[in-house]
Amino acid sequence: MPLIRPEHLVPHQNVNAVSGATTIDGASSTFAIVDGRIADRNAGHTEVSIDAAGWMVLSPLADLHAHLDKAYTWSASGSPAGSLEDAVASWRAFSPSLSYDDIKTNARRQLTAAFQSGVTAMRTHVNYHEGDDSLRGIRAVVELRAEFRNVLDLQVVAMHDHTRSAELIRSAIALGVDLLGAAPHLAPDPQLELERTLRLAEEANLGVDLHTDENLNPDSLGLLELARLTKTWPKERTRSAGHCVSLAMQDPETLALVLKEAATADVSIITNPLTNLYLQGWQHPVATPRALPPLAAILAAGVTLAAGGDNVQDPFNPLGNGDMIDVVAAMVLAGHLSPRAAWDIAAAGRSLMGLQPATGAVGDAADMILVRAASVAEAVAERAPDRVVIRAGRVISVQSRSSRAVTVTPLAQPENSV
Ligand SMILES: [Zn+2]
Q1: What CATH superfamily is the domain 61-352?
Q2: How far away, in angstroms, is 327 Cα from ligand 1 center?
Q3: In this structure, which topology does domain 3-58+359-399 adopt according to CATH?
Q4: Distances (CA, A) of 213 to 194, 217, 273, 283
Q5: pLDDT 10s digits, 15-37
Q6: Ligand 1 centroid – CA 290 distance (Å)
Q7: From which residue to which does the signal peptide run (predicted)?
C-alpha cells in the first residue's frame, strides 16, 4: 500500500496510519487509527497511510471563548474603534438590525474558518439580542451546533445582561444551551448579578462561563467572589471565568490569594489575549498595559487555564479570524509563554468541555493537526500555511501555501571577495 504525503490528502479520507511525524516534543511518532481513536497498530485495513516525514503532529486547538453571533459585523456596525465601553455601545446600537439569518450566515462563516484551521472544540457565548425575538441568536447557534457536529464540538453559553428577566433566561435554557453566561462587572451591582446568575444556573443544573473582571481596576475581584460562591458546587459542574484582566493589575499578595481561591474552587480561567490587547488601555497612550492576566502565575497556582479567540471582526476587535494559532502567538509575544506552553493552553479547552483527550496517546481521540514545520515555534511563527486537520480519523480540511512570484537569481560572487 503506497504511502500518501499529507499535502495530497483530500477531505473525507479516513486515515488508518501515520508514520514519521514529529511530535511537539521533537520525537518521531508512528501510530494507527482505529474507529476514530489512536491505536498502536492498525486493524489490518490500511487504505490511507500517511508518510508524515517533515511534518509535525500537534493537538487540535480548542477555542474556549468565541462570540459566533457577533462575527463579521465590524464594518456593518460602523467600524467603531475604542474601549470595551465604546464597543458595547456600538453593539447595542447596531444589533437590533441583525436578523436570525444574518447571525446564522456569519456564525457559519466563523465555524468554517475555525474547523479548517484546526479548532475541533469551541465554546461560544451568545447574546440575547436587541429588538424583537431576543432569543433569535441563541436559537440560530444552537441549531449550528448540530449542523457542525461532525467537524467540531460546540458548547453554547447563553449570555445575559442584568436587564434580562429570569423568565427569559429560563426560555433560553429550554432551547438547549450548555452553560449560562453574564458579565457581572458591567452590571450596576456586580455582586447581585453574579449571585442571580449562579442561582439560575443551580436551578437548571447548568454550569457557568462568566465574563469576569474585564478591566484594569485592581479592585475588581469578581473572580474571587465566583470562587467563593461555587466552591461547594459538584466538581463536574463548569465554572469558568473569561478574561480576568484585573489580575494583571493586582499586588502580589492579592494575586496569590485570588488564584489560590480559584484553584481550590476549581474555577478555570479563559484568557482572550487578542481582544484584551485591543480593548483595554485606550486611556494610557504611553506605557499602555498589555491587559493579559499573568499566565505563568495562573499555571503555577494550579488553576486550569484555556484560551479563546474571542471576537472576530466585530465591534470588539476588527482583526480576529477564528484561527487559534494567532492566539498562541499572542500568548508567546504578550503573555511571555514558550511556544510549547502556549500551544498546550490553546489545546487545553477540550478537557474543560469534558471531551476525550487528543494528545496522540493510545486510546485518545484521533483529532489532530498536521503542519509542515520542524518545531512548534516555526509552526506558530509561519502560521502553518501547510495544514491538515483530522477529526476522529477523518480528513476534514487540507490547506497549502500557494503563491506565485518572480525568481530572484543569486548574484555571481565578485572576484575580489574572500
Ligand atoms: Zn467575550
Answers
A1: Metal-dependent hydrolases (3.20.20.140)
A2: 14
A3: Urease, subunit C; domain 1 (2.30.40)
A4: 12, 8, 14, 17
A5: 999 999 999 999 999 999 999 99
A6: 17
A7: none
